[in-house]
Design goal:
- The complex is a heterodimer.
- Chain A contains 17 helices and eleven strands.
- By secondary structure, chain A is an alpha/beta fold.
- In chain A, about 55% of the residues are buried.
- By secondary structure, chain B is mostly helical.
- Chain B has two domains: about 45 residues; about 240 residues, MetI-like (MetI-like fold).
- Helix content of chain B is about 65%, strand content about 5%.
- Chain B contains 17 helices and three strands.
- A three-stranded antiparallel beta sheet of chain B has the order 2-1-3.
- In chain B, helix 4 runs parallel beside helix 7 and helix 11 packs antiparallel against helix 12.
- Classes of the chains: A alpha/beta, B mainly alpha.
Chain lengths: ~325, ~375
């Protein structure tokens, strides 16, 4: 096609893509568990480890597109979304567990709705098939209800605060920062169920292109080590403020506000990641968590062929860490 | 030159004369008003509390247990809660009426506009605002140039030859309805994650319209001209280059100005494809954290850049196509001509007096503040 070749040629010329050794590209986006990588970039820790790593900042969904299209070597992603990407060809190896959500993801109810049970027959604004949907189903299950007991209104997560404020729904599902804004914006609204009630339901992971993983095992081990170094830097009371400063600056948020929301993400240390990499059926194991995610994706027809968590998980790097 | 802005005496007070040229002064006043009216309305809604201000921002929660400082509650809820508290002889909450966060006041936006450019990026190696803007302009530029390189010649050919028109236009007509952003993932897969896919989205958004619009313009060339040229024995190539293109070039130029505006509207969807960059990155990020003053400041920047580019192109048009000057003197072009009267008016039939030029410079300022 004339159009395509012209574009390719022009863009190639425009960007001057030199044929030098390509750095390892990692796509990351606005979620504390991902943004913490910015600390490594600012501190030059990748270089210190002898790595040529380029962090590429995305919106979450485009970051998955870029990974599936083979344009980046790795992406920071929710474990269940790694299955979704994998089902459509963007297979990956999960080499590190980054965090699990512990309160940042919420179902927020308007005044008058005091529990999940109150939502029976009510409308809920939620981005269908994303993690908040999964969280809602878990919440309903624990209250002896199912999805048919409520009416879902498909709502982009970024818009949930406005939708809750509009009074057209009784509850919304959102993650930070939208969840916090919804609470702030609608007087007397409250979280009905959060990811702190279902720890381990929403794991975030570093998903690596299998080819890159096979070719650069040593590099990926070093990158994982750098990630956990960032986590330590954030957890250390002495350096916490500096880490928060860097992270909030990256996403354009107020540092003090951002600090308040960091506890909603449970950052995993190496030791915790090792534990979570052990096989099990519960939410304390990534295997159990992904099994639930896989079933959720199948139930909601996100994909047709069941995905095996074992084929994605590559615990060797974390297990080999001290 | 007599129809160019005839001097109107004060007694000639018919502002709504059909097809009647307005005087310089009146055109300037109306141009300024076209900005002042909407901005004035915005200012009224923002600064006059009883017009809208549906929320109350709590400054002191009093005895209402769930009120927190800085919290915004609907004014009805605020009244109810305070009534309850007063009935129990408690301390009522105190607050000020505000608009929803989505509608910042003009003052806040102007401040955000100013500080936006002054504030250094919070992390080293991140772009300044003007660098982000520059990035966006580059994206638009390449998208539009690439589209025009193919679209304009193709449009002229379609407008000239039925054969090519029939071969191209039905598909182009079909394709122009397809939403450009939906090709984002494909563009990323082919062109990578940097500027390539963004430029491609702008290309897709502009190109198909461009071919059709230009073909239509070319078709409007007076058939008498073509017949005359053919009678005089002009070859096919000559017909295109010596008759059709010169006859339609000024209209094509106007089309291009409109199409460039079109390209700008695709920027916001183009820039979320691939890595986050440009002014859209700024807008989305600020919207996510509810800094709507910054969001509107950025939107205003796009407006100002688009509008001033168009003014510049309009002026450039009068330089390139002097024979079309009268018919091309759109409202926008005339503001421009007012600012640089000397450059604009090589025919000094009515040299504008200096004071007029000065006051105009001042009066155009609202655009800048907007």
């Amino acid at each position: 096609m004339k159009l395509k070749t012209l574009l390719v040629a022009a863009v190639a010329a425009l960007l001057g893509t030199a044929l030098q050794a390509e750095p390892i590209k990692i796509a990351y986006s606005d979620w504390p568990g991902y943004t913490v990588l910015e600390v490594a970039k600012q501190k030059g820790w990748f270089k210190d480890a002898g790595l040529d790593v380029e962090l590429v900042w995305f919106d979450y969904l485009p970051s998955i597109d870029a990974f599936s299209a083979n344009k980046v070597d790795a992406v920071t992603i929710v474990a269940t979304d790694a299955l979704v990407a994998g089902a459509s060809g963007g297979k990956s190896k999960i080499v590190a567990l980054l965090d699990y959500s512990e309160g940042s993801d919420m179902i927020v109810g308007v005044p008058g709705i005091n529990s999940i049970k109150d939502l029976k027959g009510k409308k809920i604004g939620i981005e269908v098939t994303l993690v908040e949907h999964l969280l809602l189903l878990e919440a309903l299950k624990r209250n002896g209800m199912t999805q048919s007991d409520v009416e879902l209104i498909n709502t982009p997560t970024n818009d949930t605060p406005q939708v809750l404020a509009s009074g057209k729904v009784s509850a919304i599902g959102a993650w930070y920062p939208s969840s916090g804004q919804a609470l702030k914006q609608v007087a007397n609204s409250k979280p009905l169920f959060t990811s702190a009630d279902a720890k381990g339901l929403i794991y975030d992971v570093l998903a690596v292109n299998p080819t890159s993983y096979a070719k650069h095992k040593d590099e990926w081990a070093k990158i994982a080590a750098v990630y956990y170094k960032c986590v330590d830097y954030l957890k250390d009371p002495k350096t916490k403020d500096d880490a928060v400063k860097i992270m909030s600056a990256k996403v354009g948020a107020d540092a003090a506000d951002y600090a308040k929301n960091v506890p909603g993400t449970h950052f995993l240390t190496v030791a915790e990641a090792k534990t979570a990499f052990k096989k099990g059926d519960g939410l304390d194991s990534i295997y159990g968590s992904m099994k639930i995610g896989n079933q959720f994706n199948l139930d909601n027809k996100v994909y047709k062929d069941s995905q095996k968590p074992e084929s994605y998980l590559a615990p060797a790097i974390v297990e080999g860490m001290k | 030159m007599s129809e160019r802005a005839p001097r109107v005496s004060k007694s000639d007070s018919d502002w709504l004369g059909l097809k009647k040229e307005l005087s310089h002064r009146r055109r300037v006043i109306l141009t300024v008003l076209s900005f002042v009216l909407p901005i004035g309305l915005w200012a009224l809604v923002s600064y006059v509390p009883w017009l809208w201000h549906p929320l109350v921002k709590i400054t002191s929660p009093g005895d209402v247990d769930y009120f927190i400082e800085e919290m915004e509650v609907p004014k009805e809820v605020f009244a109810q809660e305070n009534a309850k508290i007063l009935a129990q002889k408690g301390t009522p909450a105190v607050g000020a009426r505000v608009n929803p966060v989505y509608l910042p006041s003009p003052g806040a936006v102007v401040r955000a506009f100013y500080t936006g450019f002054k504030t250094p990026p919070r992390l080293p190696n991140e772009p300044w605002l003007h660098e982000s803007l520059g990035h966006s302009i580059r994206t638009i530029f390449w998208g539009f140039v690439l589209s025009s390189l193919v679209g304009v010649p193709l449009g002229i050919l379609c407008g000239t030859y039925r054969f090519i028109a029939k071969l191209q236009e039905p598909f182009v007509e079909f394709f122009r309805y397809l939403p450009a952003p939906a090709f984002g993932a494909l563009c990323v897969a082919i062109l990578g994650i940097d500027d390539g896919p963004k430029i491609a989205i702008i290309f897709i958004g502009t190109f198909f319209q461009q071919v059709l619009v230009i073909a239509n313009t070319v078709r409007k060339v007076d058939p008498a001209l073509i017949e005359a040229a053919q009678t005089l024995g002009a070859s096919r190539l000559k017909l295109v280059f010596r008759v059709i293109i010169p006859a339609s070039i000024t209209d094509i130029y106007t089309d291009m100005r409109i199409l460039l505006g079109w390209a700008w509207t695709y920027l916001i969807v183009a820039e979320v494809v691939g890595t986050m960059s440009g002014i859209t990155f700024f807008i989305n990020q600020q919207a996510r954290y509810r800094n709507f003053d910054n969001v509107y400041a950025a939107i205003a920047m796009i407006g100002i850049i688009g509008f001033s580019t168009d003014l510049f192109l309009a002026w450039l048009g009068t330089v390139m196509f002097p024979w079309k000057r009268k018919t091309r003197s759109s409202k926008k072009a005339s503001i421009f001509s007012r600012l640089w009267p000397k450059a604009m008016e090589p025919v000094p039939d009515a040299p504008p007096e200096e004071p007029t030029a000065d006051t105009n410079k001042v009066e155009v300022k609202p655009d800048v503040a907007y």
